[in-house]
Write a structure and sequence with these properties.
Its EC number is 3.13.2.1. InterPro entries: Adenosylhomocyst_ase-like_sf, Adenosylhomocysteinase-like, Ado_hCys_hydrolase_NAD-bd, NAD(P)-bd_dom_sf, S-Ado-L-homoCys_hydrolase_CS. GO terms for molecular function: adenosylhomocysteinase activity. With 419 residues, the protein is an alpha/beta fold. Helix content is 45%, strand content 16%. The protein is built from 17 helices and 15 strands. Helix 1 crosses helix 3, helix 1 crosses helix 4 and helix 2 runs parallel beside helix 15. The chain starts with 11 loop residues before the first helix and ends in a 7-residue tail after the last helix.
Length: 419
């Protein structure tokens, strides 16, 4: 095994137990790992992965390893690493890992470069930082890279921009586009885990609070639903008229952030864009407002503007910074504006990541087989993979569904019969 950089090797046993606990809720990935162990479809392939270092990710790494891959893992967010999991990956499963919870920006990029030193044939990214660094700093490695995968909405947006500019040097499969990923991971996973992170950080009662959700994509839908389920009065802010209309039809109040800022108790951004909560919004917020982010990067909240508006700040609870504005109002920023579901909680439940990481494993296998025929652009997960993952998930839950009869197939493929 090559080098690694983790917080404390002595945490490995606790990490192993939690990885095993998560595995119980990941039957689809487990079935893929069993097949991979027999067929070894990834033998001799070097994979550099930049993902949140969690128990679920550990089980993905084990699956790739079982398939014969030589894997190196680095964190995709400075606050999302679970240090006991990183220790177990290194000491129990012998997977080189570069990740320490709370690492600074310099260390974060040092770890990205360490993962690239692996000279990957395939990349696996969560936010496109690894691919971006590869293209900017290590172009000497590009000729070795066959392709990659991307997990997040934010990363897919960045990579499609690269492809549009002609800058992308190899094909990428957008795992986030898979229906078995964004319909479930983004909606149910983000919804539950973001509420979990906010509550763990603050211990506030959500019932009766005005909860502002910025963005009504699949993550926003899930978060709004769970906040309402906890008794919050939910407001949605949007820039897309179709999504805004959908939020209205789903029973939420919809208004601009400038209006929501005046009445919100808790704010959470899930858009993937920059400065969604900006200086003029902070100037309108009431004393005690809580601000969090569950989009991939902390740029969704204009933290420099909040710093400029404040006369001081202090850490009042783990992951809760109190900013005192010059007029005396206090605004509470959670998790340094980073993904709150991973900063103060454990990220998505394993059962939903089971499908997301099954997509990762099967997409890597697909990329290895088909990279030569793919252009240097971003592709959606093939429908056959999506369907197979859904089938395996239902099977693991003991649920059976109907199948079309030959007569029904013929009817759906014909045009002659009408009224």
């Amino acid at each position: 095994m090559s080098g690694f950089d983790i917080k404390d090797p002595k945490l490995a046993e606790g990490g192993r137990l939690r990885i095993e606990w998560a595995e119980r809720e990941m039957p689809v990935l487990r079935s893929i790992r069993e097949r991979f162990a027999k067929e070894r479809p990834l033998s001799g392939v070097r994979i550099s992965a930049c993902l949140h270092v969690t128990t679920e990710t550990a089980n993905l790494m084990r699956t790739l390893q079982a398939g014969g891959a030589d894997v190196v893992l680095t964190a995709s967010n400075p606050l999302s690493t679970q240090d006991d999991v990183a220790a177990a990956l290194v000491n129990v499963f012998e997977i080189p890992t570069f990740a320490i919870k709370g690492e600074d920006n310099v260390t974060y990029y040092k770890h990205l470069r360490a993962a690239l030193d692996h000279q990957p044939h395939l990349t696996m990214d969560d936010g496109a930082d690894l691919v971006s660094t590869l293209h900017k700093e290590r172009r000497d490695l590009l000729s070795n890279v066959l392709g990659g995968t991307e997990e997040t909405t934010t990363g897919v947006i960045r990579l499609r921009a690269m492809a549009a500019d002609g800058a992308l040097a190899f094909p990428i499969i957008a795992v986030n586009d898979a229906l078995t990923k964004h319909l479930f991971d983004n909606r149910y996973g983000t919804g539950q885990s973001t509420i979990d992170g906010i509550v763990r950080a603050t211990n506030v009662l959500l019932a009766g609070k005005v909860f502002v959700v910025a963005g009504y994509g699949w993550c926003g839908r899930g978060l709004a639903s769970r906040a309402r389920g906890m008794g919050s009065n939910v407001i949605v802010t949007e820039v897309d008229p179709l999504k805004a209309l959908e939020a209205v039809m789903d029973g939420y109040r919809v208004m601009p952030m400038t209006e929501a800022a005046k009445i919100g108790d808790i704010f959470c951004t899930v858009t993937g864009d920059i400065n969604v909560i900006d200086r003029h919004h902070f100037e309108l917020m009431k004393d005690g407002a809580i601000v969090a982010n569950s989009g991939h990067f902390n740029v969704e909240i204009n933290i420099p503007a909040l710093e400029e508006l404040s006369q001081g700040k202090r850490l009042v609870r783990p992951f809760v910074e109190e900013y005192t504005l010059k007029d005396g109002r206090r605004i509470y920023l959670l998790g340094e504006g980073r993904l709150i579901n991973l900063a103060s909680a454990e990220g998505h439940p394993a059962s939903v990541m089971d499908m997301s990481f099954a997509n990762q494993a099967l997409s890597v296998e697909y990329m290895l087989k088909h990279h030569a025929e793919l252009e240097k652009k971003v592709y959606s997960v093939p429908e056959v993979i999506d369907q197979e993952i859904a089938r395996l998930k239902l099977e693991s839950m003991g649920i059976e569904i109907d199948t079309l009869t030959p007569e029904q197939v013929q009817y759906l493929n014909s045009w002659e019969e009408g009224t």
